[in-house]
Amino acid sequence: MILPKVRDPRFVTIRRGGTLTDADHRLLALWAAACAEHVLDLFEPAQPGDRRPRQAIEHARAWARGEVTMMQARAAGGHAMGAARDLRGAARHAAYAAGQAGAVAHVAAHELGAAAYAIKAARAAAPDGESGIAGRLECQWQREQLPEGIRELVLDDQRLRNDICWSMFDCPPTHPTAEHPKPASA
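Below the sequence we write its predicted structure tokens.
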């Protein structure tokens, strides 16, 4: 379970009673797609003929551009999750990341699922004894990709949902903020 029991209104669109703008919803979908695509190479060699995860990522981006409907993106996400079912390890997690990215069009809060599964994929693909480092590097890479417009929203969401996302977001910040400024040069 990666979604909270109570929906955060910041991830519900304005027209549905929340505070999420369409522009920020699109940014969340694009960021989730980037997270999933970053680990897609952990799926494709395991299932070279299965394009469902790649199609889910493409649909997430196409939805953000207004080229496909929410239902089409969500369906593509479901198909990517279907590609994961019979797999194990990094390939499975990478397919789930793609599926979550496709689902962001339907429920914006799936953005964190795409990121968490991508981190799980990176950890699973790491050599023995290096999974923690691989997970932190993937988390840091993801944070570096965050658009300014949604940075604080996503970082707060990671903090709030870290426990239900398998503690995947325990990585130091890579972007200076008011709480974590860059140290002054000596």
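The two ends are 46 Å apart (CA to CA).
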